[in-house]
């Protein structure tokens, strides 16, 4: 039996990935509060990624040739899968580096707050509940505390980083307790007439109403009073990290697959064939061409199913497990449909279109909606009401101080014609 021997390129790639990983975890850093890597590091990752993909193509080609000759080798297949998995890790590192670059730009390249006096008052309130009268611009009369503007913006920015749906879709702030939108169903008609012919009444366009589902998301992290009294503890970073993880996790799931009960209705629930969808109908679904997999031609079918008017800003969305499968797909000219990132800030592509990694998308399995393709900003709308509120509670569970944090969010389909789904099915 042959021994599996990784190519020098793949070996170097793995070593680079492990070294980068080791450097990233040398110190515990709260999620969402990370140091920004230098551009050179991002470029090095991209170089490793492209070298790894080149090695993958060589090994995968050998595997396909062996299969055609009837000499399928399980060890060769394992080798290809191992390189494929390492490519996924490198692409994840590139994506994470790109996100940190965006985060740095959004935060002005640092963590300085514009209203330091206000923030100092907020931190004093978080630690002891004491706010000087001259600095209590945001304190509620009953002892509650509404999050200051800079604090609110910090949490929202981090949600954009960790929740891809917020970055992909349109986000709108709403001032009331609900949101509805009129939809033009069209229906106007016309006719040709002569100079003296009668002009009978023609058809009048109709309007319909689209409502959006709402819910309140909350987190209630806590810490002991002694921990809060410790001046070495960064209260802002701790609370932002806790709320960031919980809110991002809950919102991400709801925006993708939420059932609309006490939460936003997710994008996938609008697939054509369901009930109570949209005045214009549901999102059309194409098949993957295989009962438990994806055929290369199915990717092209999905792309061309979307009207040309919406392809300018179109993206694919799927999870990493699905990416591992589509990475092996080729077109009729034997070219791989998937291509790695070529420069910092750019995502990998499929059929020439960017790929968004959304962990909450389903895995490839029978009847699953594993891939979405379209213009997300025109297809799905996320609604924010009021912003983030924080209520400090030192009484309910002494000696712990709880920070009851809430946010009201909504979401729903904006236009079904801007999006298409792929269902895992033979036809």
Short descriptors:
427 residues; alpha+beta; seven-stranded mixed beta sheet; six-stranded mixed beta sheet; disordered N terminus
Textual characterization of the structure:
The relative contact order is 0.15. This protein is of the alpha+beta class and 427 residues long. It is built from eleven helices and 15 strands. The radius of gyration is 26 Å and the shape is flat.
How far is the first residue's CA from the last residue's CA?
40 Å
Tally the helices.
Answer: 11
Strands side by side in the biggest sheet: 7-15-12-8-11-10-9
Strand runs, count = 15
Helix content: 25-40%
Give the mean pLDDT: 75
Q: What are the segments in which pLDDT stays under 50 over at least 5 consecutive residues?
A: 1-39, 106-115, 131-150
Write a compact overview of the structure shown.
The protein has 427 residues and is of the alpha+beta class. The protein is built from 11 helices and 15 strands.
List the helices and strands and how they pair.
Layout: H1 8-24, H2 39-68, H3 74-106, H4 116-128, E1 145-146, H5 149-162, H6 164-168, E2 170-174, E3 180-186, E4 206-211, E5 213-219, E6 222-224, H7 225-229, H8 235-257, E7 285-287, H9 296-305, E8 315-318, H10 320-326, E9 338-339, E10 349-350, E11 353-357, E12 369-374, H11 376-379, E13 380-397, E14 400-413, E15 419-423
Parallel strand pairs: 2-13, 7-15, 8-11
Antiparallel strand pairs: 1-13, 3-4, 5-14, 6-14, 8-12, 9-10, 10-11, 12-15, 13-14
Helix pairs in contact: 1-2, 1-3, 2-3, 5-8
């Amino acid at each position: 039996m042959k021994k599996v021997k990784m190519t020098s390129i793949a070996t170097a790639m793995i070593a680079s990935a492990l070294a980068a990983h080791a450097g990233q975890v040398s110190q515990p850093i709260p999620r969402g509060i990370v140091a920004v890597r230098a551009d050179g590091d991002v470029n090095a990752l991209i170089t490793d990624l492209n070298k790894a993909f080149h090695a993958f193509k060589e090994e995968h080609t050998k595997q396909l040739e062996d299969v055609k000759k009837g000499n399928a080798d399980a060890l060769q297949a394992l080798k290809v899968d191992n390189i494929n998995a390492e490519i996924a890790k490198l692409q994840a590192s590139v994506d994470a580096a790109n996100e940190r670059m965006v985060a740095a730009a959004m935060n002005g390249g640092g963590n300085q707050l514009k209203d330091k006096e206000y923030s100092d008052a907020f931190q004093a309130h978080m630690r002891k509940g004491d706010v000087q009268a001259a600095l209590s611009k945001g304190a509620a009369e009953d002892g509650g505390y509404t999050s200051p503007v800079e604090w609110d913006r910090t949490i929202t920015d981090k949600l954009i980083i960790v929740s891809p749906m917020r970055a992909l879709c349109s986000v709108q702030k709403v001032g009331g307790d609900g949101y509805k939108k009129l939809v033009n169903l069209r229906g106007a008609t016309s006719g040709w007439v002569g100079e003296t012919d009668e002009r009978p009444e023609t058809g009048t366009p109709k309007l319909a109403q689209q409502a959006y589902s709402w819910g309140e998301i909350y987190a209630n992290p806590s810490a002991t009073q002694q921990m809060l009294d410790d001046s070495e503890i960064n209260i802002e970073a701790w609370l932002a990290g806790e709320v960031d993880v919980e809110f991002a996790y809950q919102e991400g799931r709801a925006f993708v697959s939420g059932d609309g009960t006490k939460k936003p209705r997710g994008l996938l629930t609008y697939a054509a064939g369901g009930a109570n969808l949209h005045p214009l109908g549901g999102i059309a679904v194409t098949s993957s061409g295989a009962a438990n997999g994806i055929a290369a031609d199915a990717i092209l079918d999905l792309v061309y199913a979307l009207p040309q008017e919406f392809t300018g800003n179109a993206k694919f969305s799927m999870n990493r497990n699905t990416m591992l499968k589509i990475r092996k797909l080729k077109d009729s000219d034997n070219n791989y449909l998937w291509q790695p990132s070529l420069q910092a800030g750019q995502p990998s592509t499929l059929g020439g279109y960017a790929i968004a990694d959304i962990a909450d998308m389903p895995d490839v399995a029978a009847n699953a909606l594993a891939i979405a393709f379209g213009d997300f900003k025109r297809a799905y709308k996320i609604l924010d009401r009021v912003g983030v509120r924080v209520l400090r509670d030192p009484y309910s569970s002494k000696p712990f101080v709880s920070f009851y944090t809430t946010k009201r969010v909504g979401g729903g389909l904006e236009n079904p014609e801007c999006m298409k789904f792929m269902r895992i099915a033979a036809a």
